[in-house]
Design goal:
The chain is an alpha+beta fold and 289 residues long. The protein is built from 9 helices and 11 strands. Among the domains are: 39 residues, no CATH class; 132 residues, Aspartate Aminotransferase, domain 1, CATH 3.90.1150. The chain binds pyridoxal-5'-phosphate. Pyridoxal-5'-phosphate (PLP) binds next to loops.
């Protein structure tokens, strides 16, 4: 049964709420949404003290570094996505990483290693033997074709991270200078790898003004999603009907109602970034006029 934790205006986990909800937990799952990293030092300290494994959903965080460590390698398990919007794009696919041989063996077998097909991969023989035929097989194997698309992209990761960060910081400078939008700063130990930008509408905006901003930006050629105001948004927890009894998280809701999301792929050039940044500033001015 998932227990949701509040997220603050800076898109990071509210550590007081996290700590308060930890006592009944069996495991901790941290979603580094859009590459925003919560305080992993404190999260690991609290989870370790409670004896809880930490799973990092680093699907959208490849290349992010926390305190000199690659994100996704800090908890017991890290998950990465190679879906088409991600830094490494194979159309679809993803990986789970861990340094725990039992988890690795279970994951490989459950992904669909029937009839000892795990023998194709070196290592972990003992762990694999132990789990064969004792776990269901879900046929979630990533196909060789995806791997063939992914592997030549790996040497590109460092450049994409560098370009993505340049793009993000360039646009963030213009938005912050406008006084109408505010881009939350990275935490001290965090080196970001953004392929998009998130910012808050600064000051008191009504829902109608925030919706007008979306429309005005679209009219200027830039798609903006206000997370909480776009229909059925997957980041708005009130759309997670599969949870049954939906909790109320007032801080998170307030943030989502004014937090905006714009894609900034690493390939964009400085003139294209200026076009986007200026369109956003003009749209914000028009929405507030
Ligand atoms: C934080 C986060 N978690 C999970 C996912 C899902 O990844 P996938 O579509 O590869 O399952 C995504 C992206 O879609 C994501 O951004």
């Amino acid at each position: 049964m998932p227990v949701l934790v509040e997220v603050g205006e800076d898109y990071r986990i509210d550590l007081a709420d996290f700590e308060a909800k930890l006592s009944d937990a069996d495991a901790v799952m941290i979603s580094h949404m859009r590459g925003h990293t919560s305080d992993m030092d404190r999260i690991m300290e609290l989870a370790d003290a409670a004896g809880l494994p930490v799973i990092e959903d680093a699907a959208h965080s490849l290349g992010t570094v926390w305190g000199g460590r690659n994100i996704g390698t800090i908890g017991k398990v890290g998950c990465f996505s190679f879906q088409s919007y991600k830094l490494v794009n194979a159309g679809e696919g993803g990986i789970l990483i861990t340094d725990d041989p039992e988890i690795a063996a279970k994951a490989v077998i459950m992904s669909g290693a029937y009839e000892e097909n795990w023998k194709k991969h070196p290592g972990f023989q003992n762990s694999f033997c132990q789990w064969q035929n004792k776990l269901p097989l879900y046929n979630l194997r990533m196909q060789n074709l995806s791997a063939a698309v992914i592997r030549p992209q790996l040497p590109e990761v460092a450049r994409r991270v560098r370009d993505g960060r340049r793009n993000h910081d360039h646009v963030a400078g213009v938005l912050d200078a406008s006084g109408l939008m505010r881009v939350p700063a990275a935490l001290g130990p965090e080196e970001r790898a953004p392929d998009s930008i998130q910012f808050n509408l600064a000051g008191d905006w009504t829902d109608a003004e925030a919706l007008a901003f979306q429309r005005e930006a679209k009219a200027r050629g830039v798609s903006v999603q206000v997370f909480g105001l776009s229909e059925g948004n997957a980041r708005a927890y009130w759309n997670w009907q599969f949870l049954g009894d939906l909790p109320e998280l007032p801080r998170t809701r307030a943030m989502l109602m004014r937090a905006c999301d714009v894609r900034l792929p690493a390939r964009l050039t400085v003139p294209e970034l200026d076009f986007i940044a200026n369109a956003l500033v003009d749209a914000a001015r028009a929405a507030r006029a």
